[in-house]
Request: fold
Amino acid sequence: MTGKIIAIIGGGPAGSATALSLLQSGGHDVRLFNARQRSKIKIGESIPPAATPVLERLGVSHLLSEKAHLACSGSVSIWGDNNPGYNDFWLNPVGKGFHLDRNQFDLQLYKQAQSHGAQCFDGWRLHSVTQQTSGFKLLFKLENGEEKSVSADFVVDASGQGACFARRLGVARNVLDEVICLSAIFSVPKDLEVSNRTFAEATENGWWYAARLPGDKIIVSLTSDATIIKEQALASPEKWNQQLHRTQGLKKWLPSLLLQQLPDLQVKSAPSAILSCVVGTRWLAVGDAASSYDPLTSAGITKALMHGEQAGAAIARFWREKDNQAINDYQDMVFDQFSQYASLRNQLYMSETRYRRQPFWRRRQLLSG
Ligand SMILES: Cc1cc2nc3c(=O)[nH]c(=O)nc-3n(C[C@H](O)[C@H](O)[C@H](O)COP(=O)(O)OP(=O)(O)OC[C@H]3O[C@@H](n4cnc5c(N)ncnc54)[C@H](O)[C@@H]3O)c2cc1C
Reply:
């Protein structure tokens, strides 16, 4: 391979989609560097029907038909009033959504990028960055403590919320809001009937989310504010469980045996944030590294795939036409979509008025301006 070296930092959905898109244009030496995740089970698993067309365009939609993932027929929510509201995906022309085995999905995409021609460097964590006259020198730390350096003509930051490359260049991150998710994954008996819909419910301290997962599991998550979690000790399994018992619909939707179990909680921050610039000279950021959304929208993975596709096309055009227009257009698209996301998020939070005097909801109203 004699083409330009494109180094992609991060092998999540955004990094793999960027690699697949670049490989479709051909002629580049695509290298994918991925530090291994520390948590065992990756949280973030619902994708809407809109994810399917982009996976088709990337040539990997067959991944969804594998047994690893569960089809999801829509969602039910108790939000804004006490009656459940239904959103059925079968009304959508594209069809179903999915509850993914997230670790498996990310690995499948990564392997697809590899089999389409990307060179993959697993367990390589970006450590430092030096700008050169034409591109960058990247220093990685391997899991065995070794250090390796690589020169790249172009760098893609697909490292998730941490934006490890852009941060090292000193790019600022603008945070609009930040919620904290306290999530537990429970095992359920094989033959237990569980709805394939996603469930959401607003409560005074935030909102709950639950979904059936592949492998006879259910995820149950409470999203709130760091201050409320601290004041009310909601990250303690007992307090979290007490709050679950106070839900109106979720406690009935869940198999009753789960209500008796104390959770093993994973705590994750979910900021609504965007870099002050998502492109620069010979680099761009994609996925959560560029902009991250509140999980309420269940849009992070689909956005990572779509932006990855567009980022790959923009880089290919940059080298073909030798000008920055494509890269600048990509940045405009990321900013425009973040504005659209921010108004959708505001609408969703403002539409819950029953708890408007409670701190969690008051804060969201203030942030919505
Ligand atoms: C609690 C929670 C629930 C969510 N639920 C949903 C949901 O239901 N549906 C949905 O669509 N989205 C959801 N999201 C959002 C979704 O998970 C993200 O938007 C998505 O993972 C973004 O993909 P990405 O590839 O940009 O980043 P990531 O998936 O974070 O991947 C980044 C990759 O970069 C690697 N990396 C990090 N640092 C380095 C480094 N220094 N060197 C090399 N590699 C590095 C990491 O190991 C990782 O593999 C949720 C998020 C949270 C926090």
In short: DSSP finds eleven helices and 20 strands in the chain. The longest helix spans residues 325-350.
